Recover the amino acids of this structure.
């Protein structure tokens, strides 16, 4: 008969608390202490960290889009002044630019590098809007690299409508995604000035800027304007879905009575507001 107030003792093994030492009997009958390790922490980063990374990426992308639009909608001189006062913005712009280019199946700078490697390494090159001077680093040619800010000793900071080069001093002028200012015709006029007779003008531009169906320039009208400047058209390649390639050659004999050139407006790359 059970005494009043007595409780039935539950059978079963008593649970060991985590991160505690438990007794272990060895074959010699001695007791030892064994540490029970706690569960390993998850390898996944905390949600707050992932959220902050995404927010930083969005802010960085938004700043790049703002700077990109600015370059398309101001003059080269205005852009030069802006980045001279805000050099860190230039670094942010190029970081965003590199991220954008990482999604392109083929890069236009590689096509221009290919072209140069197929010609004499003695050709002197002027790279207008060189960015990180990738072209100069990948060819044997002497390359004058120009951009709005110089973060590399090989890059010359200047307005691309007014470079320090002598007239008729280079064999190839390159514009790789760099006809961005509202005064882009003055960049091409500068290229014409510094090129030797029979010198090459190589242009790679975003394809949407040359799509008349979406407000872009007609490639034929643009080519005609460049030819009126004193060039002959040598190549028009529209096969790539991301960019077009245009090659021109400076005419040996220039027309002394040059008519006023009607330049088509190049569509700026603008982004939808989110």
């Amino acid at each position: 008969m059970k005494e009043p107030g007595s409780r039935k003792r539950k059978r079963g093994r008593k649970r060991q608390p985590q991160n505690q030492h438990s007794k272990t009997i060895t074959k010699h009958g001695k007791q030892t202490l064994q540490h029970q390790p706690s569960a390993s922490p998850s390898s996944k980063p905390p949600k707050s960290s992932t959220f902050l990374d995404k927010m930083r990426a969005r802010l960085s992308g938004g700043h790049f889009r703002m700077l990109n639009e600015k370059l398309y909608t101001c003059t080269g001189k205005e852009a030069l002044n802006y980045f001279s006062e805000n050099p860190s913005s230039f670094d942010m712009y190029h970081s965003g630019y590199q991220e954008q280019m990482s999604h392109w199946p083929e890069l236009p700078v590689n096509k221009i590098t290919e072209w140069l490697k197929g010609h004499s390494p003695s050709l002197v090159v002027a790279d207008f809007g060189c960015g990180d001077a990738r072209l100069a680093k990948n060819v044997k040619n002497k390359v004058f690299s120009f951009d709005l800010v110089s973060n590399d000793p090989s890059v010359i900071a200047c307005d691309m409508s007014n470079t320090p080069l002598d007239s008729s001093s280079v064999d190839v002028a390159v514009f790789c995604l760099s006809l961005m200012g509202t005064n882009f015709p003055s960049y091409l006029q500068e290229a014409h000035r510094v090129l030797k007779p029979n010198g090459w003008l190589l242009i790679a531009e975003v394809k949407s800027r040359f799509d008349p169906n979406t407000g872009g320039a007609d490639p034929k009208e643009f080519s005609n304007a460049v030819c009126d400047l004193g060039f002959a058209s040598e190549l028009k390649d529209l096969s790539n879905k991301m960019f077009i390639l245009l090659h021109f050659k400076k005419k040996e004999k220039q027309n002394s009575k040059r008519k006023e050139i009607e330049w088509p407006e190049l569509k700026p790359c603008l982004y939808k507001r989110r």
Observations:
- Helices lie at 47-72, 76-85, 87-101, 108-117, 134-138, 184-194, 219-229.
- The two ends are 80 Å apart (CA to CA).
- Confidence is low (pLDDT under 50) at residues 1-8, 17-30, 35-40, 51-59.
- The longest helix spans residues 47-72.
